[in-house]
């Protein structure tokens, strides 16, 4: 009876297209919103993940996320270095400082100061110049996309139009003149303030003078040492917090999700998408079954069992759900790719299509089964009622 | 005898009915009652029905609206439970059968013709007609092929691809009759088969059903209000207020003549293609 079920479903093109459109809409909403949410969530800890050389981040115990600046003393570096199981430790400065661009634009930048000797914690991908160029006088490097966006020169230099900040340009950071010596590439972050890298000592020299200057200590553990044991030892001996990159990433993500309202806002959007899309589809499918109740009753009278009817309805659900959801998923992927260039945070790991399919098809099956129960309860004698 | 249903390459499936054991009786109801609802809102639709439907006969159930005709035909077709009494359908009591067994018995042995045809609008004539075969597990291609052959025998050979909406009322009812016959059932029940048809078309449809009734071992029960078709009946059972008040011989005078004229497929095709 499979082909009868399919012909009942597809035979009325208009209703079939309405069903497919409803489910495509549901699939689009569910997968697109989930992917955007995942995109934003994955951006939250990207700076931590891409600072990949260290095994541990040591920081003030009150730090709640990667850009939460809680300075620690310079001497903490030496105390960490003295802990058993630490192979090496490097200081890192991070702070928000005002910057004046060559065209006079004033903006805020996140200055990251890397250990002068090793440049540990620097970006992995250089587009122009080399990381080692940071050792040049007054050197700093900028992010390739931020140079064309947040650091873009609106009026350019005399005789020029608007243009990205580029190698050779002078930027005044906290009234200290620095020169762009390189351009790096890194994944887009959740935070929007441009990041510039310089050396640790230069960062301290341009930052406001406070008693505590350092921000993080990056730690590499000795070969064979248990990272968690080392972390516990550091915490015990310094009073600081030591976290693996994964822990710091999760801490950052959880803080931003819960404290910024993103989780609630996106949760509501995704939930509304699911509710509106799936309920609309379920209602449409329910109407389809109700409209066909007479035909199902006829089939039942002619010898169709409840199991036959169930299989027919399940097949109809799977076909219309599969086609509709597939179209929605495809649209989500296409729009995600299309707008990704415009800065849309869009990330669709395999779990999203799978969970989306489970939710959309599951709801349709639920609606289908509710409809089917109407048919089950129906006495086949109903076919003789005009 | 070459009958309407005789096929050179018969499609067989388990019918679960011992035709020989029927001994000429397709349906036997004794003291059958049926009540809808309960308490003060209870409506007694059947008040003790005694009725036999013989194999090879066309029995009509007539009577005013609400007298219990549809309830009785539903019980006879095995699609409605009765309350008391006994009712053997093709030698088996539906009350003593599981729902699954009853569904199988019905699917293999009962054909239905409805007043409103009940054709699935998105299936063509052949596909609609093939449904009973599909329900009995016959492969689609074989079922549709048989349905096309059957449609040819009711004068719709060139309309097998047509959707119900593309057919006239009479043609739709012929498709419905083909659907009722395609699996060669032992019992055919019809609910007002001519109610939606004009006199001439209704007459042709009845000629077709009449021809089917002549096939040995087959029985037809027709519920009707239409006095114009009484002449096609072997017997007419009149009902009123949930009882059978009388059973009369029909006016169909010469069954052997009809057997010769309409009982063969060629004769029938000629009849319907007028």
According to CATH, the homologous superfamily of chain B is P-loop containing nucleotide triphosphate hydrolases
Poorly predicted sequence stretches spanning 5 or more consecutive residues of chain A: none
Element string of chain B (H = helix, E = strand): EEEHEHEHHHEHEEEHH
Shape of chain A: elongated
| Assembly of the depicted chains | heterodimer
Radius of gyration of chain B: 18 Å
Order of helices and strands of chain A: HHHEHEEEEHEEEHEHEHHHHH
Would you identify the regions of chain B where 5 or more consecutive residues have pLDDT less than 50?
Answer: 1-8, 254-274
Report how far the terminal alpha carbons of chain A are from each other. 25 Å
Structural class of chain B: alpha/beta
Taking all residues together, what is the mean pLDDT of chain B?
80
| Count of individual beta strands of chain A | 10
Describe the structure.
The complex is a heterodimer of chains A (386) and B (274). Chain A is of the alpha+beta class and 386 residues long. Chain A has 2 domains: 2-44 and 261-384, no CATH class; 56-243, no CATH class. Helices cover 50% and strands 17% of the residues of chain A. Chain A has a 6-stranded mixed beta barrel with strand order 2-3-8-5-7-6. Chain B has 274 residues and is α/β, with parallel strands linked by helices. Chain B has one domain (56-80, 97-272): Rossmann fold. Chain B is 32% helix and 23% strand. Chain B has 8 helices and 9 strands. Chain B has helices at 69-76, 99-109, 125-135, 140-153, 169-181, 199-213, 255-262, 265-272; strands at residues 25-36, 43-54, 58-62, 84-89, 110-113, 187-191, 219-223, 235-240, 243-249. Chain B has a 6-stranded mixed sheet with strand order 5-6-7-3-8-9. A 3-stranded antiparallel sheet of chain B has the order 2-1-4, covered by helices on one side. In chain B, α6 links the parallel β6 (187-191) and β7. The longest helix of chain B has 15 residues, at 199-213. Chain B is globular, with a radius of gyration of 18 Å. The interface between A and B is medium-sized, with 26 and 32 residues.
